[in-house]
Amino acid sequence: MDRPHRESASVRVAGSLPGPRAQRWIAAFEAGSAPSTYVYPFVWDVSEWAEGPFCGDPDGNIFLDCCTHVASAPLGYNHPRILTECGVPFDPIKTADHDFYLAVGPDPARPRPLRLPAEAGRFRTAGHLQQKLFDLSRGFGFDTAFFVNSGAEAVENAVKIAMHHCWQRLCQRWPAALLEELCRQLHLPWHPYLTEARTNYPLFGIAMSGAFHGRTLGALSLTNSRTVQREGYAAIPWVRFAPYNDVAFDFDKLLDQRDLAAIVEAGEAARVIYEQQKAPRDLLAYVIAEPLQGEGGYIIGETAFLRRLADFAHRHEALYISDEVQTGLGRSGRFWAIEHHGVAADIVAAAKGLRVGAVLSKRQHFPSQPGAISSTWAGGPIATAVAVSTLEVIEDEQLMGNAEILGQEARSALQAVAERHAAMTNVRGLGLMLAFDLPGAAERAAMVQACFQRGLLLLGCGSRGVRLLPPLNLRPRELRLAVTLLEDALRDVERG
Ligand SMILES: Cc1ncc(COP(=O)(O)O)c(C=O)c1O
User: Fold this and answer.
1) Alpha-carbon distance 496 to 484, whole Å?
2) Which residues of the chain have pLDDT under 50?
3) Same domain for 116 and 170
4) Are residues 347 and 481 located together in one domain of the fold?
5) Helix (H) or strand (E) holding 147
6) Is there a domain that residue 485 lies in?
């Protein structure tokens, strides 16, 4: 069969999916893997032709990928600069491994050897990445970065940094005896061995209804989008939730406005925190929000809401954390989506499209003692080198502009489909983060499957949303192809 080209490629699906070879790869993997998200049996064969949004599976099928490993492949597949600059045999080198599957040739028992690019060029390090991120985050004043491995770890560390910052402020402001008395009133156990350490201190955060921040225990404590993600796990108790996008919500209701000494000296800490479920103002360390809620249903943050939220945080000396794990890297048409709202975050948490987790902020917000935050792999040299090349391609190929222009075209095209099909409503999006709703969860599941069987990869979000996250370098022809496949699939779903 002729090798396809991006200029003329189309989807190609023979028979029902997964095909026989894909099934073998899935079976070999699932024999020892824990159950996880696995959306549908899509198997990317890294040894097959793939370019832009097109990729192949071990049975010779070709897919149009409009979810790009949940935004982890902003340049689509095998961008030549990533392959040559970083010397990797394929890209994305980080895939959504708990959502889809990987193959290396037709047979799991004999993985096909991969060829490395002929000349590997400008391999850059984490130091280059820091500088690049500071340059692209102009206006935020960031001068310090901390790299980790995932979005959840980025959130987790953003929260730790904010907590530590708040703790230092408390220690400067209040005597140790007052801080210890607070713990006594709250019946908080002291660590039995580290008697000098103030562990389990009640430092508060405010997160949003419908938020998704990841699945490690700290990030999970801030997550509020789906029961299955939280049920059966212990959570950090010092989190209060506010309704996302409720412009009239009075955030101050979540706080006791007296200073810490007044609350503790009145012996009221337990009543305020446990009974009234409020946070003493001095103990508020951070406020965290996604500028556009992703897993929660592609809910675009209102400018008025996000500005009030950031003002509220700053009025109480808390740090405002923008979770840009899904929205970052130009996907919304701006480098960080929060820039659409004119809100300067104190901390940005990033991952996915960056191919490495990152926390960005100012030096004065980070703990200064060595060891207060760390991680063995902290991203790793290949991940950080790929990140630098990715950022350079986004700039050089003006992909933020492309995301904005093609995003508008996509919304118009989807709106036109919605006008022909009553089942499709609420077309929305920012840049190349696009979504629409179907009547319910069953229709949504049927739609995602019908698209898959036609060779179009997309994902659900929220309770009945369908989202599209194509590569930032999507072309108009590819967009038209995606919309045609989507409408065909919608007809299947409507026919039942
Ligand atoms: C907004 C947001 N934050 C955090 C995460 C967690 O990222 P990871 O899956 O890399 O831990 C996600 C993942 O979907 C996300 O969308």
Assistant:
1) 19
2) none
3) no
4) no
5) strand 144-148
6) yes
Residue 15 lies in a domain: no
Instruction: Give yes or no for residue 218 CB within 6 A of ligand 1.
Output: no
Q: Which atom of ligand 1 is nearest to the CA of 214?
A: 6
Q: Which domain holds residue 448?
A: 20-122+397-495
Q: Residue 193 has what pLDDT?
A: 57
Residue 196: the pLDDT is 57
Whether residues 160 and 189 share a domain: the answer is yes
Whether residue 118 sits in one domain with residue 138: no
Rounded to the nearest angstrom, the distance between the alpha carbon of 191 and the centre of ligand 1 is 31
Q: Is 321 in the pocket of ligand 1 (CB under 6 A)?
A: no
Choose one of 395, 412, 438: the last residue of a domain. Answer: 395
Which residues touch 492 (CB under 8 Å, ≥6 apart)? 446, 450
The β-bridge partners of 102 are: 44
Residue corresponding to tokens 């406005």 = 257
Tell me the three state secondary structure of residue 220.
Answer: helix
Ligand 1 contact via 323 beta carbon (within 6 Å): yes
Residues 262 and 142 both lie in one domain: yes
In the chain, how many domains are there? 2
| 3-state secondary structure (DSSP) of residue 226 | coil
d(CA 186, CA 269): 7
Query: Are residues 93 and 216 located together in one domain of the fold?
Result: no
pLDDT value for 380: 87
Cα separation, 73 vs 95, whole angstroms:
8
What is the Cα–Cα distance from 415 to 417, expressed in whole angstroms? Answer: 5
How many angstroms is it from 154 CA to the middle of ligand 1?
9
Query: Which pLDDT score is estimated for 190?
Result: 56
Do the Cβ atoms of 310 and 251 come closer than 8 Å?
Answer: no
Beta strand 459-461 with 465-468 is antiparallel
User: Does the beta carbon of 208 sit less than 6 angstroms from any atom of ligand 1?
Assistant: no
Assess whether the C-beta atom of 333 lies below 6 angstroms from ligand 1. no
Question: Is there a single domain that holds both residue 160 and residue 149?
Answer: yes
CA 11 / ligand 1 centre spacing (Å): 29
Residue 76 in contact with ligand 1 by CB distance below 6 A: no
| CATH code for the domain in which residue 60 is found | 3.90.1150.10
Question: β-strands 62-65, 456-457: how paired?
Answer: parallel
CATH of the domain at 197: 3.40.640.10
Q: For residues 134 and 31, what is the distance between their CA atoms, to the nearest angstrom?
A: 44
Question: Best mutation site among 352, 433, 459 for ligand 1, i.e. most ligand atoms within 8 A of its Cβ?
Answer: 352
Q: Among 395, 428, 460, give the residue marking a domain's end.
A: 395
CA separation for the pair 331, 67 (Å, rounded): 12
* pTM score above 0.85: yes
Q: Let me know if residue 98 belongs to a domain.
A: yes
